[in-house]
Design goal:
36% of the residues lie in helices and 25% in strands. It is of the alpha/beta class. The chain has 3 domains: 132 residues, 3-Layer(aba) Sandwich (Rossmann fold), CATH 3.40.50; 165 residues, Dihydrodipicolinate Reductase, domain 2 (2-Layer Sandwich), CATH 3.30.360.10; 91 residues, ACT domain (Alpha-Beta Plaits, 2-Layer Sandwich). The longest helix is centred in the first third of the chain and has 17 residues. The protein is elongated and about 80 Å long. The two termini are 49 Å apart. Bound molecules: NADPH dihydro-nicotinamide-adenine-dinucleotide phosphate and L-homoserine. Keywords: Amino-acid biosynthesis, Methionine biosynthesis, NADP, Oxidoreductase, Threonine biosynthesis.
Amino acid sequence: MAEALKVGVAGLGTVGMSVVQLLAKHAAQIARKSGRAVAVTAVSARDRGKDRGFDVSTLEWFSDPVEMAEKAQIDIFVELIGGDSGPAKDSVRAALKRGVHVVTANKALLARHGVDLAVLAEDNNACLNYEAAVAGGIPIVKTLRESMSGNDISRVYGILNGTCNYILTRMEAEGIGFEECLAEAQRLGYAEADPTFDVEGNDTAHKLAILTSLAFGTKIADDDIYMEGITSISTADIQAADELGFRIKLLGVAQRTETGIEQRVHPTMVPKTSAIARIDGVLNAVAVDGDFVGEIVLVGPGAGGNATASSVVADIADIARGDETPVLGMPAADLKEYRRARMRMHEGGYYIRLSVYDRPGAFAEIARSMGDAGISLESIVQKRHSADEAPAKYDAEVPQPVILITYETTEVAIKEALEAIMSKGVVAEQPQLIRIEKLN
Ligand SMILES: NC(=O)C1=CN([C@@H]2O[C@H](COP(=O)(O)OP(=O)(O)OC[C@H]3O[C@@H](n4cnc5c(N)ncnc54)[C@H](OP(=O)(O)O)[C@@H]3O)[C@@H](O)[C@H]2O)C=CC1
Ligand SMILES: N[C@@H](CCO)C(=O)O
């Protein structure tokens, strides 16, 4: 067998530690399957004294990952630091410039600099693999980059953030508050170093940017994705969704439309009967619609050290085997610019929760605003206050929750109707709006 492939791992946190442990535990199997032994010879992190669960003293240590990328005698540089700039970006660039292959789980870096890095990799005959960057343990990058290359893809969508799905699932199943669920997701190693990236939707947008490029053969652009996170989702919405036959999931959706490629990240009402509604906890699901294969759905853990290490090690094994698939599925020069569909042109059904003053005529004002904007309502439900919240006697100034479900309409019409409702002074607070997705 050829000499062992030497690997340097930069970042020994949740993912980095699991990668080193996996490579040690399954060393013989990896060597048999890829035809070459793989050995970690160098590592980099900030704190040399921290317990990593393995003996760091036998490995070459670098406090500076860029120095490791520039100087270590390694064949593969594994970047598990995170961030779209600073040491992550500088070290990846330094490794590629030397012709050292790179494996990374860093979706922020790829979403922002993916095309430039692909060019750098091509110019230096190096691989740049990133299976773990999208949906953790799910092999969706390989699926799009290789297995579905014979299909024309019309849509790719899914639950792409384990932290958000974990939070929404626990809020729904156990009635636990948002902050407590987020703290637990952080403790379990699911969340980003800055968890606002998870809950505000940025992380899903980064992954969607990569999926869009792989699915449609376009340049990666993360700057124009419509994005809403889950921080405004309340238990009232979760309960109302349940009663109406929906569950709320944070989805990333990229699809071809008549006006261009629509890319959006937002909380979504999905029918309880859909496959995606049954994806719970840290699981992610990615669905792809191909013209010949139809729809395929991949489900698996989207975050966590071991699941993510599984994908990182698969990328390392591919390099050990000699696979040299183009970074974004085709030469970087062939990636196309694309026309983005504007969110105001989005078409779909909507859930709207209003806090309506109990005044005579308030309902009529709401119905008129909807009608003036050309929107048909599928249902209107005025929720009663629970017994302990109900006012002792009728009071027109105590707002009541009202839930509207619309038939298919456009984003621009909904925004127009909500502005009109707000201007009439019949609601006590900003309406809650959640899009409804048609799914199989
Ligand atoms: N956690 C997950 O489930 C998943 C994470 N990812 C991605 O993987 C990457 C790593 O995530 P994760 O393991 O969770 O992150 P952690 O925060 O757990 O680990 C980050 C590691 O990077 C090291 N580090 C940070 N800054 C520097 C620096 N300036 N120089 C050297 N080392 C540095 C830290 O060192 P020290 O330990 O000494 O502080 C730490 O070991 C990110 O890009 C993330 O988005 C992708 C999929 C899933
Ligand atoms: N923070 C990310 C990690 C996996 O990319 C998540 O929760 O999905």
